[in-house]
């Protein structure tokens, strides 16, 4: 009896804890500055720790530094960007050294951990834009995810019994019918798991170790959901 109670307690405790990838985890009690606060506070927020995520929209390699432009999305309790929600702006991540745009390709979801620095001026199209900017310390790149709907056609022979409580005019529908399912495809993008840095970005960006982000390591996973 006591054993069962302890097991239930352990499961409840674990389910209440969010598992954040090691590379973007911070010590307990660390104050993280939010994107919205960084925008409104300006220079008062410089130097604070930030954990922001979103989607890559550009990589610009300069002689001494690389700038990664991101569309910001709020994070879930795992630290993953919630792409289904509305974005409230963009930000840039400054990284010392070279970053390969093939690894950091446009459209990938990434969460960065870093230190807030002064905003950087840029352009979106022909419009000037002030980017909240962080000096990147570490990151976690999430698996690719694609969702698409599939229509299936099946034939109903309308055989067998049905409830006598239906209307006397009811008859099972005989003939072809359509069903729609949603297929969600998750791919690592690179063999061995999601790209995951260890330690400081400038020292590991060229030879990042492939992590598993605590999920199965298959290169491709397909899940179907009946709609």
Automatic annotation (TrEMBL):
<dbReference type="Pfam" id="PF03843">
    <property type="entry name" value="Slp"/>
</dbReference>
<feature type="compositionally biased region" description="Basic and acidic residues">
    <location>
        <begin position="211"/>
        <end position="227"/>
    </location>
</feature>
<feature type="region of interest" description="Disordered">
    <location>
        <begin position="189"/>
        <end position="227"/>
    </location>
</feature>
<dbReference type="InterPro" id="IPR004658">
    <property type="entry name" value="OMP_Slp"/>
</dbReference>
<feature type="compositionally biased region" description="Polar residues">
    <location>
        <begin position="200"/>
        <end position="210"/>
    </location>
</feature>
<feature type="signal peptide">
    <location>
        <begin position="1"/>
        <end position="20"/>
    </location>
</feature>
<dbReference type="GO" id="GO:0019867">
    <property type="term" value="C:outer membrane"/>
</dbReference>
<keyword id="KW-0732">Signal</keyword>
<protein>
    <recommendedName>
        <fullName>Slp family lipoprotein</fullName>
    </recommendedName>
</protein>
